[in-house]
Amino acid sequence: MSTNNSMPDVPPPVQRFVAAINDADTERFVSAFAEDGFVDDWGRKLTGHDGIREWAATDAIGMGAQMTILSAHVNGDTVTTTFAWKSRRFTGESTGIFAVRGDVLAGFTIPPHH
């Protein structure tokens, strides 16, 4: 399992999400989400484990993604992050908003930049 000693303090589901991407482990990535979880990438929303698996293939793990959380703000069950992303599809910094539900993620949103 990848470790990033400089990762800001974030809830375990967010840590598992990042580690699964960096380890290229699709099944562990999908299992970080609730059955009815979602990924919303600039308004493209994929729901359920099948949708999340599709996003992992087309935008994340399938593109060789590596993710580093640069900063995080936890407010209840919402974790707003700034992260660095490097992949064959996109390289740069973005905002990521995680909705945590117990020990899994209810959702991950990358809002469009204005």
From TrEMBL:
<dbReference type="InterPro" id="IPR032710">
    <property type="entry name" value="NTF2-like_dom_sf"/>
</dbReference>
<protein>
    <submittedName>
        <fullName>Nuclear transport factor 2 family protein</fullName>
    </submittedName>
</protein>
<dbReference type="Pfam" id="PF12680">
    <property type="entry name" value="SnoaL_2"/>
</dbReference>
<feature type="domain" description="SnoaL-like">
    <location>
        <begin position="14"/>
        <end position="101"/>
    </location>
</feature>
<dbReference type="InterPro" id="IPR037401">
    <property type="entry name" value="SnoaL-like"/>
</dbReference>
